[in-house]
Write a structure and sequence with these properties.
The chain has 11 helices and 8 strands. By secondary structure, it is of the alpha/beta class. The protein has one domain: Metal-dependent hydrolases (TIM Barrel, Alpha-Beta Barrel).
Amino acid sequence: MIIDTHCHFDMMPNPEAYISAKEKAGDIVIGMTHLPSHFQIGQPHLRGYKRIRLALGMHPLLAAGNRGELSLFKQLVDQTTYIGEIGLDFSREGKGTESEQKQVLREILTVLKGKNKIISVHSRRAEKELLTHLKEFDIKNVIFHWYSGSVELIPEILARGYYFSINEAMCRSNNGRAIIEKIPRERVLTETDAPYNERNQIKEVLSCIKISEEEVCKNFRTLLNRVIKS
C-alpha cells in the first residue's frame, strides 16, 4: 500500500480519474488544498471513497490576499481530520508578505490549538520561525512537507514528535539526501506533492531510503492513532 500524505489532486487535469485509480490500487492519498473555499468545493466529490481524503488548507503564499477566508476555515475545520497545507514561505515568492503570513498563521493555529488533527506544513525558508509558532500554540501531529531547511533544526522538530514527508525530488538532491539521513525511520512518511513536483514516484522514494511500504504504513497508522485515541 502506497501512502501519499501530500498531494494536490484538485489541481490535476482530471482529479476524478486520478483518485479513482489510486482508490482502485488500494493507495491512501491525502489531498491538500490551497484555500478553504477549495476544500468546500472538493469535499462533496469524495463521498464514497474509502482511502482518499481532503485536507483543509490555506497556503501561505495565498494568505495575504485571502484573509477573508479565515472565517470559512473556522467553519469547516471540524469537517476533516486533515489540515494542509498551511505554514510560512519566506522565499523570493513570499517576499513582502511575511507579516501577513504570520498573522494568518497565528489565527489558524488559534483555531487548531487543542484540536486533534494531522497537519501538513509548508516551511520554505521559514522553518525555524514556523517551528516557534507551532511550539507556542502546542500544535501536535505535524508533518513537515518537503523540508529543505537546516539539518541542525531537525532534532528540535523530532523532539516535538513531528514527522517528515519525503518525495523523490528530495532523494535526488544533495541537500535532500543530507536531510533524509537525519530522520529516523519511524518518523518517515511519503508524499508526491503532485502535480507541482515532477519527480513524484513514491516507489522511488522507498527504494532511495531503503524503507518498505509496510514501515511507512506503520508510521502513518501510529500518527493516525494519536488522533483517533485523543
